[in-house]
Amino acid sequence: MDGLCYRQVNEEYADDYRQLIDSGLYQALSSKNWLIGHSEVEQGPIGGPGHLKTLLPRQLPFISYPAEWSPDQLKDAALLTLGILRAAISRGMILKDASPTNIQFADGRPLFIDSLSFERYDASRPWVAYRQFCECFLYPLLLHHYHHQGVHKILAAYPEGIAASTTLPQLPLKSRLRPGIWLHVVLPARIRQGDGDAARLPPFDEKKLLLVVDNLESTIQKLRTDAPGEGSWRRYYSETILSSSYLAEKEKIFREMLGSIGFSSALDLGANDGHFSKILAERKALVIAADSDWACIGNLYRWCRDTGTSIYPLCIDIADPTPASGFGHAERSSFTERAESDLVIALALIHHLVLTRNIPFHMLAGYIARLTRAHLIVEFVAATDEKAILLTRNKPGFHKPYNANAFEQEFGRYFTIIRRTPIPGTERILYLMRKKEGQ
Questions:
Q1: What is the C-alpha separation between 190 and 398, in angstroms, rounded?
Q2: How far is Cα 65 from Cα 291, in angstroms, rounded to an integer?
Q3: Which of 328, 356, 337, 298 is nearest to 152 (CA)?
């Protein structure tokens, strides 16, 4: 209606909503920045029969999806969900669902955004969202703990969660001796789907539920989210093949280019450890940092969390970005739609996409033009650069011509080159470009 996101509370949810407010649960959670804050407004965009209230939540500048998160992000989201569950139980409520899509990130930390996920607590019933929590949070984290492959691809393949019966065969046999895995993976995997219902379960109570929550929390806290070893690309800027002066010279030119343009949002493609994303954040802009290396994104996320810096780190493969999905491809919008920014930077990235992913200059230029509203800062790396040689050492061929002239010609179809600056001591060039009208 007015570019804002609203939530509608219907009459059928009236008792639960009043409990959320009157119990003090909403105030307790929102004051800790665990639950998104909202205001009640007189008239909403929908209304109609059954309408009770319209909520105007705090508006978030960017939305991400679990299939774009690092293991650290998923782990923090899981622990927040359990913390909220525990707080809800203490005030006579419970979470009726436990999807990671209920979580977004703000100021470097997870934030629960679904104010209507709470319902009155019946202590005689097990937690209805237990299975969903395990499938969407615990099982992907367990698979990462043992295989070190990140969680984003698991959640992309299983957006509604991965089943216990699918998870268990992928865990080491010895892991089944761990109490948490026996309780939350082995036993559920052995229960046939549809076998048994609530009427045949032993009596349940609050004490038992809190013990389950404690065990889930303890199990998840012990799971590793880091990488067993740091690959060369994860140390790209800290231990680069190039001279140590390269980063200093590149940063100097980059800051000069930033100083000549204005922007309120920026997208860092191939962000690596986030060195340049942090510089962008100094300008108080909305910054999205995308990289295909989940460990790099995890490192950047931890830094954002610890410093309270509002950068949005995402596990994104630019050669295969998150598509639109859900019913009618309309429930979750694509990365390309969500990431459009005033400024795009692509530093030490283009040569990877051309030389290893076989994407020609003209296709890259066209795609990046869709992502930026105004400006682009991009780095060209010559084929004789040590990093480029490393990429093509065992590769018989790649898209040619691959040189600065071909790069400028293809990007020139979409952009006007404002500044072209070689990085001293290297065969690299930094460009500042402006998007052409109509592109």
A1: 50
A2: 15
A3: 298
| pLDDT tens-place values along the chain, 439 residues long | 578 899 999 999 999 999 999 999 999 999 999 999 999 998 666 777 888 899 999 999 999 999 999 999 999 999 999 999 999 999 999 999 999 999 999 999 999 999 999 999 999 999 999 999 999 999 999 999 999 999 999 999 999 999 999 999 999 999 999 999 999 999 999 885 444 444 455 678 999 999 999 999 999 999 999 887 554 445 555 555 566 789 999 999 999 999 999 999 999 999 999 999 999 999 999 999 999 999 999 999 999 999 999 999 999 999 999 999 999 999 999 999 999 999 999 999 999 999 999 999 999 999 999 999 999 999 999 999 988 888 888 777 777 899 999 999 999 999 999 999 999 999 999 999 999 998 8
Beta bridge partner(s), residue 352: none
As a whole number of Å, the end-to-end CA separation of the chain is 28
Burial of 162 (0-12, 13-18, 19+ CB in 10 A): buried
Residue given tokens 């060209």 in the structure block: 380
* Whether 335 contacts 322, CB under 8 Å: yes
| Other Cβ atoms within 10 Å of 147 Cβ, number | 12
d(CA 205, CA 115): 25
Pairing label, strands 51-57, 7-10: antiparallel
Q: Which of 203, 142, 208 is nearest to 176 (CA)?
A: 142
C-alpha 37/C-alpha 58 separation (Å) is 6
Kind and range of the H or E run holding 257: helix 245-259
Phi, psi of 72 (to 5 degrees): -60, -40
Task: Give dist(CA 256, CA 110) in Å, integer.
Answer: 34
